[in-house]
Fold 6-phosphogluconolactonase.
Amino acid sequence: MKSYEKKVFSFADSDELSKSICTYIENLSKESIEKHGRFTVAFSGGSLPKTVSKYLVQSSNVDFTKWYVFFADERCVKHDDSDSNYLLVKQEFLSKLRPENCVPESQVISINEDLVNNSEEAADDYEEKLVKVFVGKETVRYPVFDLLLLGMGPDGHTCSLFPGFPQVQETGSWVTNIDNSPKPPPSRITLTLPVLNDAHNVAFVNSGSQKAQIIKEILQDKSTAYPAGLVSPQRGNLYWFMDSQSSSLLSPSVISEFSNKL
């Protein structure tokens, strides 16, 4: 029976964090493409795309033409809106790839701009896009991503799953909507918790002291009070990548030794 890893990594600063994330993704992308001919990855927003892409866009060890890029959550805004996760990932990552080795636009799966005024329809449409990519490849109840790149807010939310909101309990859909997000903009779509927990690999990427207390509660005290603490892949690996500030309250026994052989 295959064993799965749950590891916590802490790095001296954001630069070391970015280098290690790059190495991790290089290895995982190669492994996934060798196994099934493609690499399916979903990005969250915030500071994550910049941290992840810093060294990755320079890599010559990744075949980006085999990547399928998704969004773990998205704001219901146009693609050129400053709140758009699509725009953020495009500016920080996709547009910086070399033209001869970039992700084809048809393999960047984004929200339908025509539906941004109706979050429920936008969520249903995005789920249909996932169905087209995953059904026939993996015959499963939920899509199985090769990698989910997730962040966590100071309140413990991840994607657009917020503490105390009913979307955290959603199990019937792959994608759900929210119209009263405690963070602007209010209307969003998000992958649901069962999808997060069906991934082959989940990597949380965090930096900054403002998240240290909740990170301690989740990783050391095993709290399930926060959506980020409910992410635990059933048949996959879970990694937390952090800088020294966000991991400052963790006991040394909680932190794993990082290996380039991940």
User: Anything to note?
Assistant: The radius of gyration is 17 Å. The beta strands are 6-11, 39-43, 67-71, 73-75, 147-150, 175-178, 188-191, 201-206, 237-243. Helices lie at 14-36, 48-56, 85-92, 119-134, 193-196, 212-219. The chain has six helices and nine strands.
